Amino acid sequence: MTASERIVILTGAGISAESGLGTFRDVGGLWSQYDLADVATPEGFARDPGLVHAFYNARRQNCREAEPNAAHHALARLQAKHPDVVIVTQNVDDLHERGGAQAVIHMHGELMGALCAQCGARWSAPDRMEATDACPKCGSPATRPDIVWFGEIPYQMRRIEDALATATLFVAIGTSGEVYPAAGFVQDARAREAQTLELNLEPSGGANQFHSGRYGPATEIVPAWVAEILGD
Ligand code: APR
Ligand code: ZN
Questions:
Q1: Which residues, at least 6 apart from 191, have a Cβ–Cβ distance to it below 8 Å?
Q2: If residue 53 lies in a helix (H) or strand (E), which one and from where to where?
Q3: Residues facing residue 105 across a β-bridge
Q4: Cα distance between residue 99 and residue 108, in whole Å
Q5: Quick one: which ligand is closest to 117's CA?
Q6: Cα of 16 to ligand 1 centre, how many Å?
Q7: Is 88 helix (H, G, I), strand (E, B) or coil?
Q8: CB of 178 shorter than 6 A to ligand 1
Q9: Which structural domains are found in the chain, ordered by start?
């Protein structure tokens, strides 16, 4: 990897699949078990906050019991050698951080974060959140998981756009490319003449937008790609 290479990596649920965390759209995925309108929209939360908290309490528990896998560790190794590698994730788990990555941009929020819908205060989420929990800052019972739901604005988009504007290589890992704005990042990168690579279990619906793709389990293809980049 030359010093002038600027890599932006986007990860999705597929990078955490082999850690035992479910993906959304694979067979048996989360959206085949739950109606996303009930558990991943502000309207669903307003309708039944208890159901939404139960959904995220279960995912938070799964996350605490999961371990980062070889793909998470490989990206951390890459970033350790080249600190300007930017990791953007759609995932709300903390496996990138627990695998050693730094400054991960969680554009869809974080399971381990809590947010007050009333005053905007943020704090570390307890293991279990209830609809009656009072905000530690304003006291109102309006606490929610710090997750970006469908119809809400993803976090840190300016930072992501700035990174994509100067990227020389954009790599998407373990994402179906179904949800915008993340699904559009490959086009943003190509518009700036960056090379684009998809690393996924199988070609995603957006595979033809990438210059190249490598397919297989993330725990195999991501460490192999990182070793190649680092010239191991
Ligand atoms: N290794 C690599 N890729 C994998 C693996 C694996 N072991 N297992 C599954 N995949 C791939 C699938 O082929 C699929 O393309 O991961 C992708 C998972 O796609 P989705 O389930 O749609 O997850 P993601 O792309 O992250 O979803 C984006 O949608 O529901 C919202 O906010 C949610 O962040 C999520 C967003
Ligand atoms: Zn508050």
A1: none
A2: helix 49-65
A3: 88
A4: 19
A5: 2
A6: 9
A7: strand
A8: yes
A9: 1-21+68-108+154-232 (3.40.50.1220), 23-65+112-147 (3.30.1600.10)
Ligand showing the shortest atom-to-Cα distance for residue 142: 2
CA-closest residue to ligand 1 atom 26: 12
* C-alpha 4 – ligand 1 centre gap (Å): 30
- pLDDT, tens digit only, all 232 positions of the chain: 666 789 999 999 999 999 999 899 999 999 999 999 999 999 999 999 999 999 999 999 999 999 999 999 999 999 999 999 999 999 999 999 999 999 999 999 999 999 999 999 999 999 999 989 999 999 999 999 999 999 999 999 999 999 999 999 999 999 999 999 999 999 999 999 999 999 999 999 999 999 999 999 999 999 999 999 999 8
Cα–Cα distance between 95 and 86 in angstroms, integer?
16
Report, in this order, helix, strand and coil percent for the chain, each rounded to 5: 35, 20, 45
Q: Are the C-beta atoms of residues 86 and 7 closer than 8 Å to each other?
A: yes
Report yes or no: 173 and 11 within 8 Å, Cβ to Cβ. Answer: yes
Distance CA 42, CA 160 (A): 24
In the annotation, is 108 catalytic? yes
CB of 29 closer than 6 angstroms to any ligand 1 atom: yes
- Whether 155 contacts 89, CB under 8 Å: no
- 179's tokens: 């949800």
Catalytic residue among 53, 73, 106, 108: 108
Rg value, the chain, Cα = 18
Distance from Cα 22 to the centre of ligand 2, integer Å: 31
